[in-house]
Amino acid sequence: QTCGGCPSPNGLIEHLGDMLEVGSGGFGRVYKARHKDWGFDVAVKILKEDASHYTFKEGSFMDLASCEFVLRVHGVYKGPLGERGLVTDYMSRGSIESLQTKLSGPPPWPLAFQLAHQTALAMNFLHHKNIVHLDLKPNNILLNDELNVRLADFGLSTVSKSVVSDNRNSHTGPQGTLQYMPPEAFDLSYNPVRAFDIYSFSILLWSIFSGKEPYPGYSIVKARITEGDRPDCKDLLSLNVDGIRALVDLMKRCWEGDPDKRPYILKTTEELFSRHSDNIRRAVDEVLINWIDQIRRNHIILSHRMSTVVITALLTPLHKCCTIFISILFCFSFNWVREK
Ligand SMILES: Nc1ncnc2c1ncn2[C@@H]1O[C@H](COP(=O)(O)OP(=O)(O)O)[C@@H](O)[C@H]1O
Ligand SMILES: [Mg+2]
């Protein structure tokens, strides 16, 4: 099957089972579904009407699956009502953002260095293919079962231009995007180039290693960024972690106000990761075990709550019946005593 008028997707995907919504973002809703023929789960991003042209744009990036750190795009979904969406691999571990929420802080250092390195490799790959990402942030860096990076939402370029111009006119642009935008991007005549992504990468590094969102509580992020303000590195520099100084140095070079002074290709992360790679297995296991424990604890709390609700639901009517029964009994016995 071919998609008339679309740049290049291999085919339309139709045979999907029930769709379960897993999240929503600026461009649409994301669902998990089982492909009836393939037998494995995929993610389907159903785009909002005004962003639907993007479906086909990203659909034309399917060949990028040759980089293991870039999310695999399977094709374009066509629903029964004619709705269109983008079908990609489903990432059950979520994103760096969900990892940060679960850990309430930075991941173990070997994993932090691995996330940084794999994201750098994915960025270098896209840039080599002349694709600028323009929306690099923790929730676009998805994680596979083993917590390896799968960079998502690349190819938003045309949509991102409109996001950028919307942000220029508003003081409260969508959080999580403004913070990752370089100062020059607020200029009306700005044309996105790879230095945009290099800047976003530096803020992303800061967020991964500090385990925090940049500029919390700032209402004037745009003004602060254009004035040269950047996230504070004092806490990072005080850490006793091998390679942290070199990492902060890389961060600072990547967030230079002058885009020409930023690195063109990201090279340093490999050496930094190699200092910690011997401990990566242990770090991943530690996070996954912690994760499973958390799920188990949540299940226990949930089942306790459920049983409390069920017991209350059963006891309340029983309690009412008993009260009525005792009252009736009391009235009867009172009358009986009086009659006597
Ligand atoms: N392929 C996927 N597998 C699993 N979860 C995904 C996938 N793509 C997106 N998500 C999740 O769906 C939610 C919305 O994603 P998205 O629409 O890309 O938001 P945004 O526009 O903010 O990037 C996020 O929580 C993201 O982690
Ligand atoms: Mg996204």
Automatic annotation (TrEMBL):
UniProt KW keywords: ATP-binding, Kinase, Membrane, Nucleotide-binding, Serine/threonine-protein kinase, Transferase, Transmembrane, Transmembrane helix
A Pfam family recorded for this sequence: PK_Tyr_Ser-Thr
Annotated binding of ATP, by residue: K45
Protein kinase domain boundaries: 16-274
Gene Ontology MF terms: ATP binding; JUN kinase kinase kinase activity
Segments passing through the bilayer: 317-337
InterPro entries: Kinase-like_dom_sf (IPR011009), Prot_kinase_dom (IPR000719), Protein_kinase_ATP_BS (IPR017441), Ser-Thr/Tyr_kinase_cat_dom (IPR001245), Ser/Thr_kinase_AS (IPR008271), Ser/Thr_Kinases-Pseudokinases (IPR051681)
Family, per entry: Belongs to the protein kinase superfamily.
Protein name: Protein kinase domain-containing protein
Species, as recorded: Neogobius melanostomus (round goby)
